[in-house]
């Protein structure tokens, strides 16, 4: 009876925390509540029965096996928390406390200090936090927290973290969650203080039992290690480590890579077509652009440019990945879903532009981070605008607006040599209502339900981006002598229910709703000067010819090289949208970093 009461109270507490992390509509599911009750009950029984068992090793083994396979089986049948998708992951997670409690046997030996008890408490706390993050993430996004989510977390900054919390919870919910964390921290601290006394209050084990415990602990640890190559925890940790090593290898190999590029025989053979520009958007969905058929007039500038014949869209444009840190490395390098080039050996857009005699200016309204920051810093001139980490969240409307890119452009002098401008916008990144000034509040961000408010805010941000692009084009095509400009976004956004994006979220859920495809439906267009259009009609003709083909934004690298007429062994005409040779069969095209067939989301 005591266990049942404790389980009931813990379930209510756990569900309340999950409720504050999401909405009542999403979470109120009796299957989820029952599953939480079962999990909690198993662990309370575990805590009560293990220390008193005559054969604790056997009890430990039975609990680990039955809990693991039992919970996975329940998940497979009922599908709460989509545990059936995480079968191996759940089994592996359940071995973590098994290891900790097998080590517990060591603490029954009088020769063992209280330090062991503290270590075990730390292990159990880490396990609880790990499971909480996993289930909490799913309760909000209905997708598992995987390696890509971890990579995105490692690459985020304080500003993005604050806006993320504000986007998916009200101030009251966020405050309640912070309060819960404080209470949990106090509880953990208390457990550390009394861990030694609590865990050594049982009779000492005999030498025989101690040997059994040691043997069983080693077996569990080795089993986890051998099984770990395909488990959830190992995948996330290894992927994060791989990302770090990949960046280090990329930087280390840069000199050798640049030296090889300098030895190419095509130097000096490139036709000068004028200065060029690549503008990279953020969280921009083409299905919310009037130029792509959206009912609201969110793109007046682009609409007019298309009518005047100075801008050309690509109807079948998609992102190669569903989050910034996985998409952009393939946008600005030779690496794509369609080649097997090692990332450390991949040429960058900056390196190839300089090989073609271009000076490169990189202007970013995003914060400097990960591999994109490394690539940007190799440009001849790099301007980081958004260096404040707190203002956007605290003041809401502040200096993070993309119009500050215009100030940076105005400061640029008329180039004396051919120049490539790379401009990275903050675009429509959540919070949407933080991305535009009040003068662009065309649709009321406080009207209707939450979904309607978010859509209104998002559409306002798209309208503002259209304005910024118009002003960027005026400066580039006027003062700075740019002849052609390419625009593409890193990824899109789900704008129906969840209002988010993410690699793990997209890959695990893209079949569930047609709205999920918006995460990879991005705008892609070419804007040209009148002189460029008349002088290079074949470029425009090829663009129009390719408009019935599909495009992923990891092809941008080759497309901009094609515009700059840099054609060498680091260029692929099949991935150049301005080439007569462009295109792959739809069946061979991919998104989601190559894990999702494009035809599945291009319907």
Descriptive account of the structure:
The chain is α/β, with parallel strands linked by helices. The protein has 2 domains: 2-145 and 186-227, no CATH class; 253-264 and 279-452 and 472-600, Alkaline Phosphatase, subunit A (3-Layer(aba) Sandwich). Helix content is 52%, strand content 8%. The strands form 3 sheets. A 7-stranded mixed beta sheet has the order 2-8-7-1-6-4-5, with helices on both faces. The longest helix has 29 residues, at 171-199. The radius of gyration is 28 Å and the shape is globular. The two termini are 55 Å apart. Keywords: Cell membrane, Membrane, Transferase, Transmembrane, Transmembrane helix. Its main location: membrane.
The number of distinct β-strands equals 11
List the uncertain runs: 21-27, 78-93, 198-206, 223-234, 389-397
Tally of helical segments: 23
Structural class: alpha/beta
CATH-defined architecture of the largest domain: 3-Layer(aba) Sandwich
- Stated plainly, the CATH topology of the largest domain is called Alkaline Phosphatase, subunit A
Task: Average the pLDDT over all residues and give the rounded result.
Answer: 77
Number of domains: 2
The CATH class of the largest domain, by name, is Alpha Beta
Q: Please identify which CATH superfamily of the largest domain we are dealing with.
A: Alkaline Phosphatase, subunit A
What is the overall shape?
globular
Largest sheet: 7 strands, mixed
Quaternary organisation of the protein chains: single chain
Kindly report how far apart the N and C termini lie. 55 Å
Helix content: 40-55%
Subcellular location: Cell membrane
Transmembrane segments: 28-46, 58-77, 89-106, 118-141, 174-193, 214-235
Keywords: Cell membrane, Membrane, Transferase, Transmembrane, Transmembrane helix
Domain Sulfatase N-terminal: 275-566
């Amino acid at each position: 009876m005591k266990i049942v009461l404790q389980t009931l109270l813990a379930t209510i507490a756990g569900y309340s925390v999950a409720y504050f992390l999401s909405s009542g509509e999403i979470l109120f599911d009796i299957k989820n509540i029952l599953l939480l009750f079962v999990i909690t009950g198993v662990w309370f029984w575990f805590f009560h029965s293990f220390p008193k068992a005559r054969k604790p090793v056997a009890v430990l083994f039975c609990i680990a096996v039955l809990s693991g396979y039992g919970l996975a089986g329940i998940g497979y049948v009922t599908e709460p928390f989509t545990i059936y998708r995480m079968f191996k992951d759940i089994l592996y997670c359940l071995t973590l406390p098994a290891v900790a409690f097998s080590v517990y046997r060591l603490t029954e030996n009088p020769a063992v200090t209280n330090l062991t008890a503290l270590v075990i408490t730390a292990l159990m706390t880490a396990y609880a936090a790990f499971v909480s993050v996993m289930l909490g993430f799913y309760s909000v996004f209905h997708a598992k927290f995987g390696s890509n989510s971890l990579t995105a977390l490692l690459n985020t900054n304080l500003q993005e973290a604050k806006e993320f919390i504000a986007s998916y919870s009200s101030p009251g919910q966020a405050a309640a969650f912070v309060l819960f964390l404080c209470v949990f921290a106090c509880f953990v601290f208390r457990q550390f203080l009394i861990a030694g006394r609590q865990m050594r209050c049982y009779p000492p084990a005999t030498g025989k039992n101690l040997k059994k415990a040691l043997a069983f602990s080693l077996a569990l640890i080795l089993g986890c290690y051998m099984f770990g190559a395909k488990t959830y925890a190992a995948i996330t940790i290894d992927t994060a480590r791989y990302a770090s090593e990949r960046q280090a290898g990329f930087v280390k190999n840069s000199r050798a890579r640049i030296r090889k590029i300098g030895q190419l025989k095509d130097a000096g053979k490139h036709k000068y077509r004028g200065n060029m520009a690549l503008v990279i958007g953020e969280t921009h969905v083409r299905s919310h652009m009037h130029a792509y058929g959206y009912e609201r007039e969110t793109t007046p500038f682009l609409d007019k440019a298309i009518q005047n014949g100075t801008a050309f869209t690509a109807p079948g444009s998609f992102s190669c990945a569903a989050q910034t840190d996985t998409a952009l490395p393939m946008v600005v390098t030779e690496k794509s879903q369609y080649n097997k080039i090692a990332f450390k050996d991949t040429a960058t857009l900056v390196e190839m532009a300089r090989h073609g005699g271009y000076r490169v200016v990189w202007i970013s309204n995003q914060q400097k981070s990960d591999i994109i920051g490394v690539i940007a810093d190799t440009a001849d001139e790099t301007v980081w605008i958004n260096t404040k980490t707190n203002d956007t969240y605290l003041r809401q409307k502040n200096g993070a607006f993309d119009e500050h890119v215009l100030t940076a452009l105005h400061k640029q002098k008329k180039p004396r040599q051919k120049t490539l401008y790379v401009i990275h916008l903050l675009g429509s990144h959540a919070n949407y209502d933080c991305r535009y000034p009040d003068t662009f509040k065309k649709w009321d961000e406080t009207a209707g339900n939450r979904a309607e408010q978010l859509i209104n805010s998002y559409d306002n941000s798209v309208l503002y981006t259209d304005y910024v692009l118009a002003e960027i084009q005026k400066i580039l095509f006027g003062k700075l002598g740019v002849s052609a400009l390419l625009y593409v976004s890193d990824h899109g956004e789900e704008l129906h229910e969840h209002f988010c994006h993410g690699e793990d979220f997209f890959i695990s859920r893209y079949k569930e709703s047609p709205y999920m495809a918006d995460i990879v439906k991005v705008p892609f267009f070419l804007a040209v000067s009148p002189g460029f259009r008349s002088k290079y009609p074949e470029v425009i003709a090829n663009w129009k010819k390719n408009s019935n083909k599909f495009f992923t934004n990891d092809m941008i690298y080759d497309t901009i090289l094609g515009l700059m007429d840099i054609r060498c062994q680091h260029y692929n005409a099949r991935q150049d949208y301005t080439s007569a040779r462009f295109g792959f069969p739809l069946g061979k095209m991919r998104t989601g970093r190559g894990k999702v067939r494009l035809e599945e989301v291009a319907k």
